[in-house]
Amino acid sequence: MRSLTVTIDRFPIAGKFTIARGSRTEAVVVTATITEDGVVGHGECVPYPRYGESVEGVAAAIEALRPQIEAGLTREALQNVMPAGAARNAVDCALWDLDAKRSGVRAHITAGVNRWSPATTAYTISLDTPEAMAEAAAKAAERPILKVKFGAPGGDLERIAAVRKAAPNATLIADANEGWTEDNLAAHFKACADAGFALVEQPLPAKNDGFLGKIERPVAICADESVHDRPSLDRLVGLYDAVNIKLDKTGGLTEALALADAAEARGLSIMIGCMVGTSLAMAPAMVLAPRARFVDLDGPLLLARDREPGLVYEGSIVYPPQPSLWG
């Protein structure tokens, strides 16, 4: 017999996490725990207001599915009874974890990943003044990949140059979080190209990103807010070079794997990303790491406190989860 527990958990962020849409000092997550015959599966999601989600609404959506879950809902059936988004992610990942623990077959094997190796994750530099961002980049300059937040009105050209000067050897990813405009896009692209950025993530609002097909793009462009699941993918071909797959957008690992297949079939590279959550949210995303061009799973590194047990990080190297955490 199955039972479902839904909790809202809070984890303080070390300092402050700032992007173009605002700042946070804690990560508020929803955790789904499914127990069956003494075996326990866990899944975590991070509700995101940008997509019309709230912590309370996501928790309520999972609770509303209690009868089906406790009656034996499968991952395959879940895809048809719940839309893509954070709520489905928590349930889907809990079912993956439960299946792995019941069968004794690790989740990555079930997903078709025969070798689950450590990955190098990007490390995020929050949006701030050029001077503060340069200082943060200098402190993190030994990390091989830095993901740098932009998108504030004015000053991004100075921020781009300052971060590159502070971290001359790092691979840099610019993430504007929809904060640039058609008017300033060319200047920002040129600055990123001149500074040797490897990738620019979501430069324009998703509703306006068709403009990317009308402008020269001297640096590779990755979709984030513009891509959620497979139905959102086709219109991105020709506008973007890569897609950022996040389980909170796809509604779990099941759809994330299918989206990765569909993206690769269309010639798009993959970034596997995250919201600011704990190791429990990062663990299932690690299944996609072996096929990703960039891995951005630094959520726990931004927290003052993580779950126990958590993922093991050695600098920017993140190791696959132990079964006691997930999968």
Question: How would you summarize what this structure contains?
Answer:
The protein is α/β, with parallel strands linked by helices. The protein is 30% helix and 23% strand. The protein starts with a strand and ends in a 9-residue tail after the last strand.
Helix-residue proportion: 25-40%
CATH architecture of the largest domain: Alpha-Beta Barrel
Biggest pleated sheet: 8 strands, parallel
> Can you tell me the number of structural domains?
2
Relevant CATH superfamily of the largest domain = Enolase-like C-terminal domain
Order of strands, widest sheet:
5-6-7-8-9-10-11-12
Q: How large a portion of the residues is in β-strands, by DSSP E? A: 15-25%
| pLDDT averaged residue by residue | 96
- Count of alpha and pi helical runs: 11
The count of DSSP E runs of length 2 or more, i.e. the number of strands, is 14
**Quaternary organisation of the protein chains:** single chain
Structural class: alpha/beta
What is the C-alpha radius of gyration, as a whole number of Å?
A: 19 Å
CATH class of the largest domain: Alpha Beta
Q: What overall form do the CA principal axes indicate? A: globular
The helix-strand sequence is EEEHHHHHEEHEHEHEEEHHEHEEE
The N- to C-terminal Cα distance equals: 21 Å
CATH overall fold name of the largest domain: TIM Barrel
Keywords: Isomerase, Magnesium, Metal-binding
Cofactor: Mg(2+)
Enzyme class: isomerase
Organism: Microvirga terricola
List the helices and strands and how they pair.
Blueprint: E1 2-19, E2 22-36, E3 39-45, H1 55-64, H2 66-70, H3 75-81, H4 86-103, H5 107-110, E4 119-120, E5 123-125, H6 130-139, E6 145-149, H7 156-166, E7 171-175, H8 185-194, E8 199-201, E9 221-223, E10 242-245, H9 247-250, H10 253-265, E11 269-272, H11 279-285, E12 294-295, E13 313-314, E14 317-318
Parallel strand pairs: 5-6, 6-7, 7-8, 8-9, 9-10, 10-11, 11-12
Antiparallel strand pairs: 1-2, 2-3, 4-14, 13-14
Helix pairs in contact: 1-4, 6-7, 7-8
Keywords: Isomerase, Magnesium, Metal-binding
EC number: 5.1.1.-
Protein name: Dipeptide epimerase
